[in-house]
Amino acid sequence: MFPSERPRRARASPAIRDLVRETELSVRDFISPMFVDETLDRPRRVASMPGVVVQTPTSAAEEAARIEALGIPAVLLFGVPRRKDEEGSEAWNDGGVVQRAVRSIKDATGLAVITDLCLCEYTSHGHCGVLRDGTVDNDPTVERYARVAVSHARAGADLVAPSGMMDGQVGAIRRALDAAGHQGIGIMAYSAKYASAFYGPFRDAAASAPAFGDRRTHQMDPCNAREAMREMRADAEEGADILMVKPALPYLDILAEARKRFDLPLAAYHVSGECAMLRAAAAQGWLDGERAMLECLTAIKRAGADMIITYLAQDAAPLLGGG
Q1: Catalytic residue among 84, 106, 193, 301
Q2: Per-residue pLDDT tens digits for 60-76
């Protein structure tokens, strides 16, 4: 005897599958990262990130307009300055590369503009903050993050996104923004950011590889899950408006657990290495690139993400009705 319940009935046709589908991926879920490099005279393709182009300060607004035309609602900006020093002081220069890009994008589009707050692109040593005895010194670094946040807010950023994984960074940034009259600027916190092997291509694009050592003293150990919940809880209590898990696919368990525990919006960062692997496999003919891309992005949404930061946003958007 066959069972009376036959799940295949709900898979019998495309129309029925649409009716019972539990997770819907939308172009409105995407945040498109953008690199802006003031050392460039023309946009530069990134060899290790097929499809990603680093923009110049003058080309950033045009690229943003293309992103907006696809229906993608937001960009996440990373800047590469012409001048670097030991403490990354160009990061809080009101005339700096990200600040100029924010202003030009806001003038040209209606996109939400989110700015990454870290110093690794701005320091001469490539680390995420001020060094003391070869290690990032937490509290002076947090003070500098707060300066960067206020500068980005003055430029017109909608959200600032502290990514350095320093203790207390969200609270310090919230206090600095409020004191400067920017109570309406939100914080997207890189709350559970792991010391991952999947960041390599990003560092090619952002010129942010550390000159020595690594970032394991502040980014999270991939072996730890409960610690991620403590980090996220701390950021929520300090005033974060959005919590993030980074990377996405290797940490879907973290994302799903965060969805159970927190009511704040959740972002997942589908990082450079994840996207590069998909594109490389598709280029070799080993995968159906479009199907694999949408399957991965859907998995991130299904696990609990409200928004997905991905370098595949512009490829996925037309497949989802964008543009």
Answers
A1: 193
A2: 999 999 999 999 999 99
